[in-house]
Amino acid sequence: MSENAQSGRRTPSIGLRPVKRFKRAAPATGGRKPRRPKRTGWRRLLPTWRMSLLGLATALLLGVGLFALGVALVKVPDAHAAATAQSNTWLYADGSVITRTGQTNRQNVSLDKVSPAAQHAALAAEDRNFYHEGAVNVQGLLRAAVNTAKGAGTQGGSTITQQYVKNTYLNQKQSVTRKVKELFIAIKVDATESKDDVLSGYLNTSYYGRGAYGIQAAAQAYFGVDASALNPAQGAYLATLLNAPSAYDVATATPAGKQNAVNRWNYVLDGMVKEGWLSAEERSAAAFPDVKDPQPNPGLSGQTGYLVNEATRYLTSNQIISETELAKGGYTIKLSIDQSRQQALQDSVQAQLHDTLNPDKRKKDAAAQAGAVSVDPKTGAVVALYGGVDYVKHYVDNATRRDYQAGSTFKAIALAAAFENEAKTQDGRTVTPSTVYDGTSGRKVRGGKGTPYAPPNEGDKSYGQISLQQATDWSVNSAFAQLAQDTGLQKVKDTGIALGLPGGTPGLDPVPSIPLGAATPSVLDMAGVYATLDNGGKQITPWLVQSVDREGEAVPLPAHKTTQAISADTANQVTSMLQGVVSDPGGTGWRAKALGRPVAGKTGTTDDQKSVWFVGYTPELVTSVALFGQDPGNGAQVSLSGVGGIDGAAGGQFPAQIWTSYMKAALKGQPVSTFQTPADGGDSSGATDLPTAPSTPSTTPSAGTGSNGGSTSSTAPTTPPNDGTGAGSGPSTPAGGPNSGGGVTSPPTAPPATQQPTTPPTTRPTGRPTGRPTPTTGPTTAPTTQPTTQPTGGSDALTGAGANAG
Q1: At what angle do helices 255-274 and 116-126 cross, to 10 degrees?
Q2: Exposed, middle or buried, 17 (CB in 10 Å: 0-12/13-18/19+)?
């Protein structure tokens, strides 16, 4: 209480207390919503959904506006100026000119001058929705852009309008910038030109191969008719060529390329039926059309066409330059070809083969087709290539074709597979060069499944118990069939691929005949395989193009990858054994000894002597030579027996002589090098410690067949082939199994009968030699002319159903 001073009354005192803050009650339904609490921390940096939506809308409108502005402002280039082709310049490794190409065959026609069937075929192949879509296939464009950015290569999906723009106004370079330009120009063209005009322009600017630009030039080049007269089958074939002109040219393509062309042709016709442009009856009646042979191009005569064609294949298959872009020209392409070695290879084939042939007197001589490739084993560079007598006369490249069996040149792969995988015989002994095998002709292979494989040797000769080295020198089929089974057929195939054979090589299957060369690799493929052996087991795929530039700007080339395919010791061991093929006077490749340098190599001859081979190497250079029998009229494979007036044919004859002549010139003036010695010291066995005269060949199977022991036979083997011979069998033979038998330490080493020693040794060696001596009676020079009679030791002809020995 407090007193009032005036009244004296007491009044209650009032104390000031803090005001209590009350929370606002929640508003009733329909009232104002509470405020959203302010965002704190990192959340303040994020835009609200209103801001995001506004930004997205703004960006979309801006993008559409800029895109529309780009389309409005873009100028379509002068089509005629951009589509004018220039020449390409092809150079040797030293920079000297091989040739210039680029002559353009272009004939523009209006759409009414192109048959409806041909128009529909192009649409069925490239863009079936052309008349019902815009200029751009958005899905295809996005896919192509992503794949290009990833480096995944060229992808399909472009509309015909886009392809027309690319053909006419832009280069073929795959880049995001080019795709953007293509997009804008395509939209502008679609907005300013009719669909018929675009289709007409596309058909007139597309490249069909053979230098033909436009469907009118293509119709004349392939069928000799005008575009207006093309029927559905012909139109479908020309539409097929749009995808890959050279690869699908059935007049020059490989067997695989021809089949791919037929598959694509069927796809086009089926598409025409699906779209209602061709009746089912017309489709059933359609047959693959006859295609004219290419017309000679003087600038590609001789070996030039083969070199340009193989370099073009390398560039296009590796997606370095598209075929269409290359046809436009302006490129300078330097090859790895050494001009002097190229000339030496041509001269050697001419002197050792063609100068000895006379097709007018001996019709058989017209069947001989030679192919050869020379490779630097350290780099993989192809330094010389012989594709045939003349590109404008024989378009198929004998150096790269894959339709003739390799024969016993494949035995080198079987050896590598055995040593690399530490193969064991059926009685558990590790395979080495001195491992004894049964060389009885027709002997059943042991260890396999099903019907035993029993390949004959050449002439059905039996060799008794012989070392693996001896079997290599003389190319004994029965021993190698067993070796492959001991190793594992799949391992032999895998080793071949590791050494450099393409995985898709025709006939490269894990079957009992695989070591006898049932597969059909090219001469170039086999050069690459042997280069791997020569390079210490390091595999480099052979290459032909050294550099490319256009208008001073270098075109990037893929790196040449080096892979350790097999161990260096395995490669050196195989090389050591292959030296016996040449240094042993009874070896199938004895003629190559005339080179006067260390040589390793292997001969090969196939079924009915349809092909004969010699693939050999020195430490500096690998060269593969083959001779193919081909009917000049219908192209069928035929026997080479009788070519040059010789009864029979062998890899140790023409191919070995060509090889020796070329290698002498190619290595002239270079110091002599030696091969690396394998870990076991390089004892090749069999080719040393030998009698100087062979015994009389046996005509009946030797004793000891099927022996699994390691004992030494008491009888010597029969005469080895001494002219590059052997025998084998085909890929369809059933599997057999391995067997090793008793051995012999004294195989013959005599050269051909005319040079054999006249007296035999008085005693037989009793132990394994420690080195390979140089025979005093063996040939020291290669024959200067092709022999006119078959050496008495045999021919490496095949008597089985497939590839044979050599």
Answers
A1: 100
A2: exposed
Hey, what amino acid is at 176? V
Kindly state the helix (H) or strand (E) to which residue 351 belongs, with its residue range: helix 339-352
**Mean pLDDT in order along the chain per 10 residues (806 residues):** 50 53 53 62 66 74 60 52 69 94 80 96 93 74 59 59 77 58 74 87 90 91 95 97 90 88 96 96 95 84 95 93 86 96 97 94 94 98 97 92 96 98 95 96 92 90 96 96 97 98 96 96 98 98 96 91 97 97 94 96 93 97 97 93 91 96 97 91 44 34 34 40 43 37 35 36 35 36 37 34 48
CA dihedral 466, 472, 473, 478 (to 10 degrees): 60
Scan for tokens 């050279």, then name that residue.
246
Burial of 763 (0-12, 13-18, 19+ CB in 10 A): exposed
CB 737 within 8 A of CB 618: no
Tokens of 412: 């080198």
Measured over all CA atoms, what is the biggest interatomic distance in the chain, rounded to whole angstroms? 170
CA distances from 566 to 513, 669, 679 (A): 22, 32, 15
Alpha carbon distance 362, 639 (integer Å): 14
- Check: CB of residue 506 under 8 Å from CB of residue 402: yes
The H helix count followed by the E strand count for the chain is 21, 18
Beta-carbon contacts of 48 under 8 Å, excluding residues fewer than 6 positions away, are: none
Of 567, 506, 556, the C-alpha closest to 532 is: 567
pTM of the entire predicted model: 0.71
Query: Which of 696, 692, 752, 688 has its CA nearest to residue 462?
Result: 696
Name the residue with tokens 């723009």. Answer: 165
Report which of 266, 327, 222 is spatially closest to residue 125, judged by C-alpha positions.
266
Question: What tokens appear for 546 in the block?
Answer: 């050294």
- Separation between Cα atoms, residue 170 and residue 172, nearest integer Å: 7
Kind of pairing between the strands at 331-335 and 88-91: parallel
